[in-house]
Design goal:
- The chain has 13 helices and 12 strands.
- By secondary structure, it is α/β, with parallel strands linked by helices.
- The strands form 2 sheets. Strands 8-7-6-9-10-11-12 form a 7-stranded parallel β-sheet. The chain has a 5-stranded parallel β-sheet with strand order 2-1-3-4-5.
- α4 links the parallel β4 and β5.
- The mean pLDDT is 98.
- The structure holds 2-keto-D-gluconic acid (8YV).
- The site of 2-keto-D-gluconic acid has 10 residues, from loops.
Length: 315
Amino acid sequence: MDKPHILQIGPYPEWDMERLEKQFEVHRYFEARDKAAFVAERAGLIRGIATRAKLGANKALIDALPNLEIISVYGVGYDAVDLEAAKAAGVRVTNTPDVLTGDVADLSVAMMLTASRGVIGAQDWVRSGDWQSKGSFPLQTRVFGKRVGILGLGRIGYEIARRCAAFDMDVAYRNLKPKDLAEDWTFESSAEALAERSDFLFVTLTGGAANKHVVDQKVIEALGPNGMLINVSRATNVDETALLEALEKKTLGFACLDVFEGEPALNPRFIALDNVLLQPHHASGTFETRKAMGKLVFDNLVAQFEGRPLPTPVI
Ligand code: 8YV
């Protein structure tokens, strides 16, 4: 039987490519110079899209593929897929939840610890000889026992909260509704109230229009000059202009960021700051997790073409 044809929107590691190419006719959209012509030439053949969280699939692309059945996203976030267009066209959408939760939580907490204890600057202190010439490294800020706020208590938010609780931190969260939890974490009624009571505020909201700029100037100011913002979700959840201004004026103490508007070309004002820890959107970037994500992208495609239930459907 002919292999199903899929359109690959962004690159994957070698191990994923091998598996995909064995099973499917893979059309590498990301390597095409003239994208529109590339799609037009094979539009009728394509039954599946394999994409990445950040790249998604827009309405124009979905509408250009009359035989499209499924969009399989390499990532838990599917905000870059036009869900309405997919629904209207009867196209299924899948993502890669759960397998990345622990790694994203680990990097989030690692950023909080690294930044608070000055780990990067402290290594520079050793390497540069400052330890010998200047003496002890400047004192840093304690983490354990402090107040932490989780904005969005989904799977990732919950795992961050659990890790923070193990550091004897006082945990509070903001969610659409209070959660029925075994833990005695405090529910706050607004993002601003959560920021107000927090030393560290983790942003773990889903992306998309509904959460655009939930972290606005007011929330940033409520967190204040001694507060730290940690964003591992989507840049759109934070008003980046307000964030940059607050960091420059030091009305916000510090920000740890794994996501940026227009990434990887981030605003150069971030680079000039000394109160940020900047990471290249790699919270899910371990061998173990990326292998599991690639396997789910593949399994969802195969299930669709074999008429079986999808392992991780969004719609
Ligand atoms: C990306 C992510 O998928 O899962 C998400 O929503 O943003 C990340 O895990 C990853 O960077 C690969 O594109």
